[in-house]
Write a structure and sequence with these properties.
7-stranded mixed sheet, about 40% helix, alpha/beta, Aspartate Aminotransferase, domain 2, 4-stranded mixed sheet, binds 4'-deoxy-4'-aminopyridoxal-5'-phosphate
Length: about 450
């Protein structure tokens, strides 16, 4: 199958989409030039598109589908709830059950508040931190993605032109970001302990929270060093700033989340994706004293929060089933297949003699076309040349039956067999051959 030539059905659907969706698109992350491939069906780790092409899915809806598609246990839980009603203007017991699982697994989570997306979870966590501390500013890592809340997306695509020699600056991601938002966000250099500590201390007394993803996907998918994380926890504690772990993706890394791996107990944790078993969800959890900002029992809470579909029992039931399947052996398996794919791709890079390697841990990995140390957003930043190589690699994967996110992220699922993993590694090696060929062609010109 050769994209785009062999995908006339998707091309036709896209032409129709252009009439009613801006640019034919309703989700920037799934846009593809000249047109996206439209999904028709998924089962296990495979997805079929509108032209009937079958692929192994390493996007897994941007890490959400940790068991792949149509897991019988998740489907059964949803079917049972469907027969009982999909959502009510009343609470259901299902929200308690999912909250109990999260509180039991995550050291920093005594109580939980459900939302409909990770974006909303991050927004509510930042608002909760402001309500609790009475402070207005927040600190976040340069280039780290936390969804679409104005404050959370500051500096997301910070570019070399505004890097300078000193601390990162607050750059807007979207047109129309209010200046007030930029003024209230302090941007931190990931894994740079000294400068981060200085910035946090300079703002002490004004910062409500420091928001961190322990392995920020868009900032290179490199784990925070133990030293960096310890610095954030220590300085946050000493300055009365709340530490927020964004575990919307990193919960995937272990049974006790990233906070279990790093041995840090954040004040607040944001969750999403896998806790909904394939249905819309988000959650903010944290220590009881902070979560009290949501408590309505003594009148209007410090932070009122509703949401028509928050804690809807379909998402709750799917999430419960999905997390029950994610027991400790499931995490061990995810770790093992992640290691195999990383090692397989790294070995192929070495054999072919082209600069590059993987980053990531557990079931997550990313390919970088550089031999330089990748430690943060700036060292992972793609220039025009490396971006071209990644595009060639991704196209090579696609045409060999493997889906990866356009920015290089691959997320594995429990539904992948050893043979599926072999297929992913073989496709990656083939795609790297395409990269070698493109480099040779460029040299010959
Ligand atoms: N935080 C992180 C770390 C994420 O990766 C994402 C989404 N990819 C979000 C928050 C936002 O979640 P959602 O897409 O559910 O709004």
């Amino acid at each position: 199958m050769n994209y785009p030539d062999d995908a006339p059905a998707s091309q036709q659907i896209y032409a129709r989409a252009r009439h009613v969706l801006p640019g034919g698109n309703t989700r920037t992350t799934v846009y593809m030039k000249p047109f996206p491939l439209y999904a028709v069906r998924g089962e296990g780790c495979r997805v079929w598109d509108a032209d009937g092409a079958e692929r192994i899915d390493c996007i897994n809806n941007f890490t959400a589908m940790i068991h792949g598609y149509c897991h019988p246990k998740v489907d059964e839980a949803v079917r049972k709830q469907l027969a009982l009603g999909t959502c009510f203007g009343m609470p259901t017991e299902s929200e308690i059950e999912l909250a109990e699982i999260l509180c039991e697994r995550l050291a920093g989570v005594d109580q939980v508040r459900f939302t409909n997306s990770g974006t909303e979870a991050v927004m509510m966590a930042l608002k909760a931190a402001r309500a609790f501390t009475g402070r207005e500013k927040i600190a976040k890592v340069e280039g780290a993605y936390h969804g679409s809340y104005d404050y959370a997306e500051v500096s997301l695509d910070s570019a070399p032109a505004n890097w300078g020699d000193s601390a990162p600056t607050s750059t807007p991601y979207a047109k129309g970001t209010p200046t007030g938002v930029l003024d209230d966000v302090v941007v931190l250099p990931f894994n740079n302990t000294e400068l981060t500590e200085r910035l946090l201390r300079e703002q002490a007394g004004q910062l409500a929270a420091v928001l961190v993803d322990p392995m920020p996907n868009r900032a290179g998918l490199v784990p925070a060093t133990a030293e960096y994380m310890a610095c954030l926890a220590r300085v946050a504690k000493e300055t009365g700033t709340l530490l927020i772990f964004d575990e919307v993706i990193s919960l995937r890394l272990g049974y006790h989340g990233a906070q279990g791996i790093w041995g840090v107990k954040p004040d607040l944790t944001t969750l999403g994706k896998i806790i909904g078993g394939g249905y819309p969800i988000g959650a903010v959890g944290g220590r009881e004293e902070v979560m009290a900002v949501f408590d309505p029992t003594s009148g209007k809470p410090a932070l009122p929060h509703g949401g028509t579909f928050s804690a809807n029992p379909i998402s709750m039931r799917a999430g419960i089933a999905s997390l029950r399947l994610l027991d400790k052996p499931a995490f061990e398996r995810l770790e093992a297949i992640g290691n195999r794919v990383r090692q397989g791709i790294d070995a192929a890079f070495e054999r072919l003699g082209i600069p590059g390697r993987t980053t990531g841990r557990g079931s997550l990995l990313k390919v970088h076309f550089t031999n330089n140390a990748v430690v943060d957003y700036r060292s992972a930043y793609q220039n025009a040349d490396t971006a071209k190589l990644l595009a060639t690699f991704n196209l090579g994967l696609l045409n060999r039956g493997v889906l990866a996110a356009s920015y290089g992220l691959m997320a594995l699922s429990t539904s992948m067999s050893d043979a599926d993993i072999d297929q992913v590694i073989a496709a990656a090696e083939g795609a790297l051959h395409d990269v070698v060929q493109s480099l040779e062609t460029a040299q010959a010109v």
